[in-house]
Backbone:
């Protein structure tokens, strides 16, 4: 496994560089560009116009905006890695604290939906690959394409209208009833009941894409020569797919899953808005429109960090799955 | 969504006004509709200064407008703002009715009077004649608007001058104005020429792009069509909203159609039109107008201010730095079982008193009022909160010295202050305004501490020192000193003379014992960072640090989900009828001495729910003195029984059933007088005595009859 | 006869048209015999190879004929029996393009062992890998190849591994479809030598398919020349090569450059291989035949026995 260690070391350096570049870019776009290049002070909207100039300078100092750029950057990076994501311009409270308030809701909803979407997508894609060319295949492909192109807000509102309003089966907003039940079991049930429609929305919109992707990945592999060998050797369709094809399809699938993971934290803006789901996605969107830069920076940083970390884990998994990657 | 907060003062804060501009952006329209009939109880309702009638206000956070409307139609909400495009959907719903009122949002065409060719007054007037306001309101906003001629529209009550020169829609008049000013029109080339002979340059109207605000674009198109029909070189420039705002602030814009959100007093007019005013984007400078505006602003006498403003409006209509177009009309929906909504006259807008008066038609007291929030309040700190939703919550909790009078919005209704005096005086030769407030003495904060002049004093100095953007105004800048001669009187001395000081100093008041608690604030980050609604009250469990004097107490919050307010049972303006109900049964009101006086009383709260922890007593009163009293015993189900021994008493008395109970932590009392007569014990035997007397009388008569002297017949 | 093919016809359906890839092929093969089938690209020889193992793509079917393996007609056998009892056990295949014939992400040893495990119940993985190592030795590879991945091996090594895999269950017949096509000449020679050895040592019958006449000539006992889905000539290798009777065979052989002869212009066969959808009427070779006669255009030539065991289908040979 020496090859593996070397390979992972190389990948680690790679990923750290990516992280660094991303941080520099983020810093440049959100702090340097507006302030130094365009002359717009991002704290303008929150700086009390009634303050005297000295008071303003004091505040700028507190935010570290008076030091040279590279010093600011170093401070910024150090702060990030010690968990200090800055202070929201809007509420003046720590971004990290506000993030924690909203994180559970988002992670539960998005986590569940991502896992289910990928599982369903894999299962459907697998089934379609095995049944390629048949009518079922065509029907599912059309359905997948249709669902994938469905705008999220439209589907969300549609579900809300039909199941929430006309059929009165599900609630129209929020993650708990108002007021919530005190019994813990009922509370969980209530939460799940509220989560059903947004979960459905996310899954329906997402599953089509995964299914099609998996299907075409599998079909590509099924056209390879070694499949002919395997068939000649006496394996049946199912064994071929499970023992041979899946191993080859793992690298792209792992990458896809790895890229989907950070989305669990950064949330889904539209779904969260339509269902009034108190989450990170909506918060990020609001912060962007309100020029609350520290929040945007903080959440982006978490997102980038998670992306780099999950891609690194993906690197590891792919290296384990595909020997060509680590031994060549 | 746009409940008018009559007590919020328009701040010269750019953020909030921008926000108001953006909020107005969401008006879309489809068809003209006629609102459903208002239920009789609401129609007949006249406002009371007491309340609140409901027990709880539940404010669920529903971010998406469609979801909100669905919740309203389903009955999960009691009220909802109805966008013009959706009015058709709800008007035929038998469970919903609509109330319509004018808002304080004015749409206007703002003009950069320093830029050619808008710098010609004649051009501005000509364009004013080319704006077909009726068409615009009908076709672009489908009837939901009122055309406006004056910069200070009628919603302001008697601040508005109804007789300003107007510019009726007329192509002829537009041409005439230009021709009269020396412009020339060449029929051959179809072009206009300035008086100096130069060909008239491009007249530009800037609006956000069609995708962002299609209705504004449509309006601009109509105006441009009209202009072109008389040959004017007029065109539209689509420019992204933020860029337009940047141009406006830097005064490089040309002209734009946007909205301005006012508060109920037009203090903004001063900054809008005077030379060098912070809102004078148009760049006008007229010494006469400046004088009028100084007179308007710097006087302590409101009627003088109104007079000056009337004249100023005429001047403004003549200079025409901006062309007012229309005032928005808002539709708010209510479920038909809701009554008690109070709208301010003359043109509507929800009064603060709605909070006290709103109730369900089948439940005069009690229940919950469910009103939505369109965004999750980020902070409930009155000195840093800026959104309408945040203030919608806090307006139930905090109060101020006076509020807008619902019968005339430009008048004031005393509130925490029962009266005030405004005088002009001098300090060291400088004119100074002296305002003295006389406060009510029966007010307590939610935690039981009495509200005094010290709280008012604290709030003012806090604002002066910390300069929070929302509240800081000239009045605080110029505040010299205050005097607090006793707990319920406070005087402020402010440099300069202006009636606006009275309005600007009327901020939401906060408790000194919380906000003045330095260590408490520092523990949670300081006055700017802390959110008092998230910090538990230092001494009273169950309360947060967000306490006020208002009708509702901040009870519960689930961030992103809902906010629950419970009624303040110790409210200083608690409705006198929202109290205990006593039902009594008495066997007899006339007794003989020695017989027990038995009373059974059922004690319930105002919704009819039985109270099992009340203290009930029965007192016998004669000539105002309590002769005897006894406590009643709870027998179950809220029924209390008492039995009073009447030995040694006789005469007419007043039997008083008195009850007191705690509801929601505050004590309520009620008493019911019952006239009772106690006859002396011997009177019990009266019938017997009467019978005896009659018997004796009969016996005597009989004896007499039987022993009468027989008369012998003689010879 | 170990393997006897009678009148095998395999057609493909391609967008409403029928490709007659194998159009009536017959031959027989005995134990430890090698038959070489030569033909141009597109003449149907790979299809023939697939048909022999009955590995058909979804749009292909065997329309007619029999394939008798040890007397049993495998055309009529159900798929399940073929998979478990016939393929790889009795008759197996070495594919062309050996790079992709092996799964790139699975170790070589495991792939060979897989064939064993699938077919024989009760064999543990350890035993199967042991047998796989032995097979690798048989084909001249080091035992350590067991743990290698395909991309770690050279072309020749891979080809050997594929052969090892084909031999996993001791089949009686091995079909080698262009096994040396991707290899350089030296390695090619090694592989051919290996195949010859295996034929002798293991008593293996081989059907060797190639477009390369010289390769066929090195390794085959008997030879068949395939053209447009049919055999045009067949017989002992010596006989066919020394006395090529069909014009196509003659042209093929003379097209091979010889070291001994002086350099001269390339001899090639004019024209293109015919379409298998609408093959030319009569003799399929007639459009390109230098000796074409009228009858060739209309009638299919009969099969003439030129000498004992040596057959050719040509009108020219008719009596």
Residues:
């Amino acid at each position: 496994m020496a090859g593996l260690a070397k390979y992972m070391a190389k990948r680690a350096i790679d990923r750290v560089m990516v992280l660094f570049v991303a941080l520099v870019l983020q810093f440049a776009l959100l702090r340097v560009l507006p302030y130094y290049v365009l002359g717009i002070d991002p704290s303008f909207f929150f700086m009390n116009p009634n303050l005297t100039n000295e008071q303003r300078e004091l505040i700028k100092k507190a935010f570290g905006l008076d030091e040279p750029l590279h010093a600011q950057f170093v401070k910024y990076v150090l702060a990030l890695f010690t968990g200090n994501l800055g202070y929201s311009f809007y509420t003046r409270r720590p971004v990290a604290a506000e993030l924690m308030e909203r994180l559970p809701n988002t992670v539960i909803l998005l986590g569940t939906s991502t896992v289910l979407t990928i599982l369903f997508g894999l299962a459907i894609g697998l089934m379609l690959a095995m049944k390629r060319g048949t009518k079922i295949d065509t029907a599912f492909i059309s359905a997948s394409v249709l669902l994938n192109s469905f705008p999220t807000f439209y589907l969300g509102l549609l579900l809300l209208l039909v199941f929430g309003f006309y059929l009165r089966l599900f609630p129209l907003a929020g993650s708990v009833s108002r007021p919530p039940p005190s019994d813990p079991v009922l509370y969980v049930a209530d939460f799940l009941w509220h989560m059903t429609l947004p979960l459905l929305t996310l899954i329906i919109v997402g599953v089509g894409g995964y299914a099609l992707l998996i299907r075409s990945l599998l079909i590509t592999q099924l056209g390879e020569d070694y499949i002919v060998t395997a068939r000649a050797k006496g394996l049946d369709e199912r064994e071929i797919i499970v023992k041979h094809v899946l191993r080859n399809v793992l690298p792209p699938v792992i990458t896809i899953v790895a890229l989907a993971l950070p989305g669990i934290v950064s949330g889904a803006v539209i779904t969260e808005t339509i269902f009034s789901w108190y989450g990170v996605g909506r918060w990020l969107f609001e912060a962007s429109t309100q020029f609350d830069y520290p929040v945007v920076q903080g959440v982006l940083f978490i997102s980038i960090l998670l992306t780099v970390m999950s891609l690194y884990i993906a690197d590891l998994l792919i290296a384990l799955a595909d020997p060509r990657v680590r031994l060549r | 969504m746009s409940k008018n907060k009559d007590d919020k003062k328009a701040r010269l804060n750019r953020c909030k006004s921008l926000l108001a501009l953006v909020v107005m952006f969401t008006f879309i329209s489809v068809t003209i509709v006629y609102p459903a009939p208002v239920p009789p109880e609401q129609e007949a309702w006249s406002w009371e200064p007491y309340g609140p009638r409901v027990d709880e206000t539940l404010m669920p956070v529903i971010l998406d407008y469609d979801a909100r409307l669905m919740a309203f139609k389903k009955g999960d909400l009691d009220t909802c703002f109805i966008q013009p495009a959706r009015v058709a959907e709800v008007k035929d719903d038998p469970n919903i009715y609509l109330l319509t009122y004018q808002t304080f949002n004015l749409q206007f065409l703002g003009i950069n009077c320093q830029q050619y060719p808008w710098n010609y007054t004649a051009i501005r007037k000509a364009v004013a004649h080319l704006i077909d306001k009726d068409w615009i309101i009908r076709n672009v906003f489908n009837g939901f608007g009122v055309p406006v001629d004056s910069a200070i529209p009628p919603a302001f009550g008697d601040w508005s001058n109804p007789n300003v020169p107007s510019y009726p829609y007329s192509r002829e008049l537009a041409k005439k104005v230009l021709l009269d000013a020396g412009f020339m029109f060449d029929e051959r080339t179809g072009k206009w020429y300035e008086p100096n002979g130069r060909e008239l340059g491009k007249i530009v109207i800037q609006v956000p792009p069609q995708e962002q605000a299609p209705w504004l674009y449509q309006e601009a198109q109509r105006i441009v069509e009209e202009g072109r029909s008389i040959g004017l070189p007029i065109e539209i420039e689509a420019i992204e909203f933020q860029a337009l705002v940047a141009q406006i602030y830097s005064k490089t814009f040309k002209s734009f159609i946007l909205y301005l959100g006012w508060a109920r007093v037009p203090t903004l007019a001063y900054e809008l039109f005077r030379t060098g005013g912070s809102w004078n984007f148009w760049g006008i400078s007229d010494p006469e107008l400046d004088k009028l505006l100084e007179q308007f602003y710097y006087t302590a006498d409101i009627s003088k201010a109104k007079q000056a403003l009337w004249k100023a409006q005429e001047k403004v209509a003549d200079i025409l730095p901006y062309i007012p177009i229309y005032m928005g009309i808002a539709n708010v929906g209510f479920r038909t079982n809701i009554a008690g909504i109070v709208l301010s006259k003359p043109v509507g807008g929800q009064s603060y008193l709605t909070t006290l008066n709103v109730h369900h038609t089948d439940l005069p007291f009690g229940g919950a009022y469910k009103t939505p929030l369109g965004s999750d309040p980020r902070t409930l700190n009155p000195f840093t909160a800026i959104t309408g939703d945040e203030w919608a919550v806090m307006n139930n909790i905090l109060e101020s010295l006076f509020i807008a009078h619902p019968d005339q919005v430009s008048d004031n209704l005393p509130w925490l202050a029962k009266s005030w005096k405004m005088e002009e005086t001098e300090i060291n030769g400088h004119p100074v305004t002296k305002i003295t407030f006389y406060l009510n003495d029966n007010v307590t904060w939610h935690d039981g501490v009495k509200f005094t002049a010290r709280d008012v004093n604290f709030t003012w100095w806090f604002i002066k020192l910390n300069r929070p953007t929302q509240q800081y105004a000239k009045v605080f800048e110029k505040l010299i000193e205050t005097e607090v001669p006793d707990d319920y009187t406070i005087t402020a001395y402010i440099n300069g003379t202006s009636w606006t000081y009275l309005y600007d100093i009327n901020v939401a008041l906060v408790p000194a014992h919380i906000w003045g608690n330095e260590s408490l604030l520092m523990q949670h980050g300081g006055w700017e960072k802390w959110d008092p609604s998230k910090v538990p009250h230092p001494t009273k469990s169950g309360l947060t640090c967000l306490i006020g004097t208002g009708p509702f107490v901040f009870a519960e919050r689930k961030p992103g989900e809902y906010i629950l307010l419970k009624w303040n049972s110790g409210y200083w303006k608690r409705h006198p009828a929202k109290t205990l109900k006593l039902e009594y049964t008495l066997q007899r009101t006339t007794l003989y001495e020695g017989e027990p006086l038995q009373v059974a009383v059922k004690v319930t709260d105002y919704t009819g729910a039985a109270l099992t922890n009340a203290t009930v007593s029965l007192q016998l009163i004669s000539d105002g003195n309590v002769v005897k009293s006894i406590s009643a015993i709870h027998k179950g189900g809220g029924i209390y029984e008492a039995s009073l021994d009447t030995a040694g008493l006789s005469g007419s008395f007043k039997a008083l059933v008195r009850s007191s109970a705690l509801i929601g932590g505050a004590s309520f009392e009620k008493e019911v007088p019952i006239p009772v007569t106690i006859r002396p014990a011997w009177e019990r035997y009266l019938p017997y005595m009467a019978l005896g007397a009659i018997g004796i009388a009969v016996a005597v008569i009989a004896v007499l009859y039987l022993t009468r002297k027989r008369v012998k017949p003689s010879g | 006869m170990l393997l006897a093919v009678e009148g095998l016809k395999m057609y493909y359906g391609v967008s409403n048209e029928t490709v007659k890839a194998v159009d009536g092929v017959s031959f027989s093969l005995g134990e430890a015999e090698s038959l070489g089938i030569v033909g141009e690209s597109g003449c149907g020889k790979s299809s023939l190879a697939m048909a022999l193992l009955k590995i058909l793509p979804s749009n292909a079917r065997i329309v007619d004929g029999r394939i008798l393996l040890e007397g049993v007609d495998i055309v009529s056998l159900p798929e399940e029996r073929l998979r478990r009892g016939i393929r790889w056990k009795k008759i197996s295949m070495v594919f062309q393009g050996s790079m992709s014939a092996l799964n790139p992400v699975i170790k070589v040893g495991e792939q060979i062992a897989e064939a064993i495990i699938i077919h024989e119940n009760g064999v543990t993985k350890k035993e199967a890998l042991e047998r796989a190592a032995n097979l690798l030795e048989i084909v001249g590879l080091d035992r350590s190849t067991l743990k290698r991945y395909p991309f770690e091996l050279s072309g020749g090594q891979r080809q050997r591994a594929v052969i090892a895999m084909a031999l996993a269950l001791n089949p009686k017949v091995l079909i080698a479809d262009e096994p040396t096509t991707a290899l350089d000449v030296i390695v090619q020679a090694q592989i051919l030598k290996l195949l010859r050895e295996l034929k002798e040592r293991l008593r293996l019958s081989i059907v060797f398919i190639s477009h390369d006449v010289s390769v066929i000539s090195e390794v085959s006992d008997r030879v068949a020349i395939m053209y447009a889905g049919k055999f045009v000539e067949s017989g002992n290798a010596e006989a066919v090569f020394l006395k090529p009777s069909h014009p196509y065979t003659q042209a093929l052989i003379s097209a091979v450059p010889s070291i001994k002869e002086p350099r001269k212009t390339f001899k090639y066969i004019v024209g293109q291989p015919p379409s298998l959808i609408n093959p030319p009427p009569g003799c399929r070779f007639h459009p390109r035949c230098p000796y074409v006669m009228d009858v060739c255009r209309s009638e299919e030539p009969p099969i003439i026995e030129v000498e004992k065991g040596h057959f050719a289908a040509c009108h020219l040979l008719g009596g």
Observations:
- Chain C has eleven helices and twelve strands.
- The CA atoms of residues 133 and 144 of chain C lie 8 Å apart.
